[in-house]
Design a protein that fits this description.
alpha+beta; 12 helices; 38% helix
């Protein structure tokens, strides 16, 4: 009973998991198509806009647009909320990040719309008198009479029961919509990124799974919860080993019309097949829980730059040098040199309504590094920046780098749980062949693995989540998981019934 009941709960919730992954909140897209920046929209230089708003230093800057209005998105410090300065007049957009979160969330939920004339503005406390780009952007967000209506908006700087650590990205905005399904869309404004979505139906499944499978009701116990899970999983593993051993050394009784003996005979043969999957699930589950004793410190690795407000952004010169439509720019520092990281439009426009997480793929953008001082081009700048970031995080010598390669889709080594795409994989010939997965757009470490840690990842992916069925597609993998989880449940229930009958007085 000590083993049977927990394993039954794990099997039932494991059966439910593929259903959860297919009963997702419906959003129009998880990635927005880039928009070419119109140089005519940049009338006020960055330095003037910064000085006008008394910004004496900043961590990052890039360009964003709300409808057809462009703004400098200036982040004072890493993980701090950015401010928005008009590229037309340098004015500060009041509550800019709060507004932009709503604009992004609605784009993800309802899909990008062609620019339309803004609705007539209504009095709003945060809007300055007089019509300008800030008023127009605010009106576009707050007075939008089409699509889903926003119920409330909140900024998250820590994970909670709904937006859990597995989602990785922080800080984000939670934008709740006034709809029957109660959908909440989480967005990262500093990357125009879809982070997560939850509706009322999915929340019920999620709560059940957390209670039955990961035992969230024991979170207050800390590491003792992991000890308990490992102990029970290992008990299930050795019970399955013992069952296989007994099957091999004993013979099956003939039923001879005896119903109970016939039931035991059938249970015996089905159990031996199911026991193989019990071995796989219990071993990989225990191994996975054991790996959680090691602190996941990836969030501690990031670059925190500070730039003076006199950095010159000559957008016209950048465009002349690159001679391609520019979709965005950002400022980074490498070897004490400031560089404009310029993203250009792809020759082939990406398809709208792309569901990145479903396809588990995101193309590597076309990036050019241009020195902010002399506007010289750095060949292979993005690759060199990834290697430089990895060196800052690892403190390994550049000579120990074995390879630097782009990663545009999830795999067994860098999987869906790591969340960020695309990234660069920097491989070293040190420390058990450690690999650093770097997100250059944010200057953050996405994941770090070596050969020994990879063993656990493969164990969990192949033995627990049935990724050995990837060759047949996600549907086949889901069916494999559900069928064998159901077999586990059937074996346990039949076994408990037979045990109960045998215990009854004759």
């Amino acid at each position: 009973m000590i083993v049977a009941i927990p394993v039954l709960l794990w099997a039932a919730s494991g059966f439910m998991h593929p259903l959860m992954t297919n009963i997702k909140p419906q959003v129009a897209t998880q990635k927005l198509s880039p928009v070419a920046i119109d140089s005519n929209a940049i009338r006020v230089p960055l330095t003037v806009a910064l000085q006008k708003n008394n910004i004496t230093a900043f961590h990052s800057v890039r360009l964003i647009h709300i409808d057809t209005k462009f703004f400098y998105q200036v982040q004072p410090e890493v993980n701090k909320a950015p401010v928005y300065l008009s590229t037309v007049n340098g004015k500060l957009l009041p509550s800019g990040d709060w507004l932009y979160a709503q604009y992004l969330a609605r784009q993800f939920l309802d899909g990008p719309k062609d620019p339309t004339p803004a609705a007539t503005a209504i009095p709003v406390a945060m809007v300055e008198e007089g019509h300008d780009c800030c008023n127009a952007a605010t009106s576009c967000v707050l007075n939008n009479n089409t699509g889903s209506k926003v119920a409330n908006v909140s900024r998250l700087t820590t994970f909670d029961k709904e937006y859990k650590y597995v989602n990785r990205l922080l800080p984000v905005y939670k934008v709740a919509f006034r709809r029957p399904d109660g959908i909440r869309v989480y967005v990262e404004t500093t990357q125009d990124r879809f982070a997560f979505a939850m509706d009322n139906k999915r929340a019920v499944f999620d709560t059940i799974f957390q209670w039955l499978h990961t035992w969230s009701w024991l979170d207050a116990w800390g590491n003792f919860k992991l000890v308990l899970i490992i102990a029970i999983a290992l008990m299930a593993f050795f019970t399955a080993v013992l069952g296989i051993y007994i099957f091999c050394i004993t013979k099956t009784k003939k039923a001879n019309g005896h119903a109970l003996v016939r039931a035991r005979r059938n249970h015996r043969y089905t159990a031996i097949v199911g026991a193989l999957f019990t071995l796989a699930w219990s071993f990989s589950g225990a191994y996975h829980a054991f790996a959680k004793f090691k602190t996941d410190d990836r969030d501690a690795f990031f670059i925190s730059n500070q730039f003076a407000p006199d950095v010159e952004l000559n957008f016209g010169q950048l465009q002349t040098i690159i001679n391609k439509p520019v979709s965005n720019i950002s400022l980074v520092k490498m070897d004490e040199q400031p560089w404009w990281r310029v993203i250009t439009m792809a020759n082939k426009p990406p398809a709208l309504h792309v569901k990145v997480m479903k396809n588990m793929e995101a193309p590597m953008p076309a990036v050019t590094f241009i020195n902010a001082n002399d506007y010289s081009i750095l060949p292979q700048g993005e690759e060199k920046y990834a290697a430089w970031l990895a060196a800052q995080f690892s403190h390994n010598a550049a000579s120990s780098i074995r390879s630097v390669t782009p990663v545009t889709k999830f795999n067994d080594e860098y999987n869906f749980a790591d969340k960020r795409l695309p990234v660069w994989k920097v491989s070293y010939n040190l420390h058990n062949n450690e690999r650093y997965f770097i997100e250059t757009s944010t200057g953050k470490l996405s994941a770090r693995v070596n050969d020994s840690e990879l063993a656990e990842g493969y164990s969990f992916a192949l033995l627990h989540k049935h990724h050995f069925m990837d060759w047949a597609g996600k549907t086949a993998r889901d069916w494999s998981t559900m069928v064998w989880a159901f077999v586990q449940m059937a074996i346990i229930v039949i076994g408990l019934v037979l045990w109960w009958r045998a215990k009854k007085p004759k």
